[in-house]
Design goal:
This protein is mainly β. It has a single domain, classed as L,D-transpeptidase catalytic domain-like. It has helices at about 5, 85-90, 145-155; strands at about 10-15, 20-25, 30-35, 55-60, 70-75, 75-80, 95-105, 125, 145, 160-165. Strands 1, 2, 3, 4, 5, 6, 7, 8, 9 and 10 form a ten-stranded mixed β-sheet that branches. Strand 1 and strand 2 (about 20-25) form a beta hairpin. The two termini are about 25 Å apart. The model is unreliable at about 1-5 (pLDDT under 50). Keywords: Cell shape, Cell wall biogenesis/degradation, Glycosyltransferase, Hydrolase, Peptidoglycan synthesis, Transferase. This is L,D-transpeptidase. Belongs to the YkuD family. Pathway: Cell wall biogenesis; peptidoglycan biosynthesis.
Length: about 170
């Protein structure tokens, strides 16, 4: 996909439908994925464990060229690849795998700024173990995707791509 095409798309995330779509400026759907948003539902407050609503953009993209199932901690690859054996050694870990699309809010006082800042809350679109259900709200605030799906999305967007969460 050309840079020009990448810049003419936006990401639409529906909490109600637990889905993410890549949409052209003309309104055509280029891709559609099942996702998992926050178990605590929608919300913007710091430490709420909720998925923030409204306008956002992709501020940073992390994981270029890394293999699927790469494990991240604090946005850095740990050198591990996710396996069921690794998961059994860390049963309480919230796995962030494969790619990270770090979001930044665009609406001051709603999802940007003191007490409600999406970027400061470390809200990402990221991969999760393929054993985790999609279409079911279970995350800690982020938008979880299948590893192959997040890698596909990652290759179709650029920093600055608009993201709308409803």
């Amino acid at each position: 996909m050309s840079t020009r095409t990448r810049n003419s798309v936006h990401v639409a995330i529906s909490i109600a439908h637990q889905s993410l779509s890549l949409i052209t400026q003309g309104g055509d759907e280029l891709a559609h994925y099942r996702v998992s948003t926050a178990l605590n539902g929608p919300g913007e407050q710091n430490a709420s464990g909720c998925t923030p609503l409204g306008g956002h953009y992709i501020r940073a993209m992390i994981g270029t060229g890394l293999p699927l199932n790469t494990v991240f901690r604090a946005r850095r690859p740990t050198g591990e690849l996710y396996t069921p054996e690794l998961a059994s050694m860390h049963p309480d870990r919230d796995w962030i795998l494969s790619r990270i699309l770090w979001l930044c809010g665009t609406e001051w006082g709603r999802n940007r700024g003191p007490g409600v800042d999406t970027f400061g809350r470390f809200i990402y679109i990221h991969g999760t173990p393929d054993t985790e259900p999609m279409g079911v709200a279970r995350s800690h605030g982020c938008i979880r995707m299948r590893n192959a799906d997040v890698a596909d999305l990652f290759d179709r967007v650029t920093p600055g791509t608009r993201v709308i969460i409803t």
